[in-house]
Write a structure and sequence with these properties.
Blueprint: H1 7-17, E1 25-28, E2 32-36, E3 45-48, H2 54-70, E4 77-82, E5 99-111, E6 122-125, H3 127-132, E7 150-157, E8 160-170, E9 173-181, H4 190-204, E10 209-214, H5 219-224, E11 228-238, H6 240-246
Parallel strand pairs: 3-4, 9-10
Antiparallel strand pairs: 1-2, 2-3, 4-11, 5-10, 5-11, 6-7, 7-8, 8-9
Length: 247
């Protein structure tokens, strides 16, 4: 499998996350990756690795729709990798049968060095707690999930976890995912402090690069931390008619 920088780390992280989500599984072949998470809807995604034509892309869409329909998953997204390294330029694909263009995320990477240290406010916990801490304060932090290579992180402020993320170490690359801060405490540097701690920890454990997928809102933060754009994912979701047909 080849693709955008960090793509192998991303898929490996999805595979690791199946260990904390009942019924989840990952399918990988030469041109398609499917991540099926029946009990965790935001993680139901597929990547078409290299569609050679519009017809090939439409055929892949049919295959993906069938996989999610068989799993009873009602909502999913299809990601098309693109070398376009910004979020404003028009997409290379104008139309996919049964699908509608939804959002874009920017693939960003950076080399890791030894410049950052540990932050005493950052702690490890479970994926569920770290995810929740991006939306609301979490005071009782459960133990880590114990999945090899997969770490969930929170930053504690005034007695509660108020920022969260998870990371996955794949070879010498550290994938960073779902970084966020509770709304009332955003733009105070908490997410930046959390990311610096996570990447410093990854560097101590042998990581020499970091990769992530950024929303438009997150891009300024990651650029301030030395990340640069290397491409993007153009995300498509089924139209109502397409979803009905697949079901």
């Amino acid at each position: 499998m080849s693709g955008l920088p960090g793509e192998q780390t991303l898929v490996a992280s999805w595979r690791a996350l199946t260990g904390v989500s009942p019924g989840a599984h990952i399918g990988v072949d030469d041109d398609l990756v499917t991540a099926v998470f029946p009990s965790w809807l935001p993680l139901n995604n597929a990547i078409i690795l290299a569609p050679s034509s519009r017809e090939a892309a439409d055929t892949a869409v049919e295959r993906v729709a069938g996989v999610f329909a068989d799993a009873g998953v009602p909502e999913w997204a299809l990601w098309l990798p693109s070398p376009i390294a910004d979020l404003q330029s028009p997409g290379a694909t104008a139309e996919l049968t049964g699908m509608v263009a939804d959002s874009r995320t920017l693939v960003m990477t950076r080399a890791l060095g030894g410049g950052w240290g540990s932050d005493p406010a950052v702690r490890k916990t479970s994926i569920a707690a770290a995810t929740l801490a991006t939306d609301e304060p979490v005071r009782d932090l459960p133990a880590v999930d114990g999945v090899a290579g997969l770490d969930a992180w929170v930053l504690v402020h005034e007695g509660a976890a108020v920022a969260g993320a998870w990371s996955y170490l794949h070879g010498t690359d550290c994938g960073l995912y779902t970084v966020g801060t509770v709304p009332r405490l955003r733009r105070r540097g908490l997410a930046a402090a959390l990311v610096k701690h996570v990447l410093a920890d990854a560097h101590r454990r042998g990581a020499r690069t970091a990769s992530l997928q950024s929303t438009p809102e997150g891009e300024p933060l990651y650029r301030s931390l030395g990340f640069s754009a290397a491409g993007r994912y153009e995300e498509w979701v089924p139209t109502a008619a397409g979803a009905d047909a697949a079901g």
